[in-house]
Design brief:
This protein has helices at 2-20, 34-40, 58-65, 69-75, 80-92, 142-160, and strands at residues 24-28, 49-54, 98-104, 119-126, 129-137. It is an alpha/beta fold. The protein has one domain: CinA-like (Maf protein, Alpha-Beta Complex), CATH 3.90.950. The longest helix is centred in the N-terminal third of the chain and has 19 residues, at 2-20. The protein is globular and about 45 Å long.
């Protein structure tokens, strides 16, 4: 059932990207490529999805997405600051118009009083979209938290595309 929801959202997102002539890239940590998996489950996704970066370790975030060591030290891997740098790195290191990122604590371990299990940070940036970030708190098992984060990312991308102009038709 959850996979059906993700496929429906991915199909809707693909249609919105295609209608605007836009290409997407993703940077994922706690979801481990689940957004990319949902997107590539849609036939024809190569027309609007360029690549996904799965940067689970801090070194991967630094090396692949140019996240700064000081950001990781000062704010942690699970922070809106890191999510913003991940999204900016995905946009810079791809041939895309919009990028999203996810970093969080899916559990069952790894949480703290300040950042409990289920804390997930998101960011979005694009050629016609200034950087935006948010933090959500999800409940459930590791699998449920990852699926909720993936669904949230897909739904938010659909919403944010409303601000992108559609190509002019003559």
């Amino acid at each position: 059932m959850a996979d059906d929801k993700l496929h429906i959202l991915a199909t809707q997102l693909g249609a919105a990207l295609k209608a605007r002539g836009l290409i997407l890239s993703m940077a994922e940590s706690c979801t481990g490529g689940m957004v990319a998996q949902a997107l590539t489950s849609v036939a024809g996704s190569s027309a609007w999805f360029d690549r996904g970066f799965v940067t689970y370790s801090n070194n991967a975030k630094i090396e692949m997405l140019n996240v700064s060591q000081s950001t990781l030290e000062n704010f942690g891997a699970v922070s809106e600051q890191t999510a913003a740098e991940m999204a900016a790195g995905a946009l810079k290191n791809s041939h895309t118009h919009i990028a999203g990122s996810i970093t969080g604590i899916a559990g069952p371990d790894g949480g703290s009083p300040e950042k409990p299990v289920g804390t997930v940070c998101f960011a979005w940036v694009g050629v016609h979209l200034s950087m935006s970030t948010c933090t959500k708190q999800f409940q459930g098992s590791r699998a449920e938290i990852r699926q909720q984060a993936t669904a949230f990312m897909l739904a938010e991308l659909i919403e944010k595309l409303a601000y992108f102009p559609r190509p002019m038709k003559y």
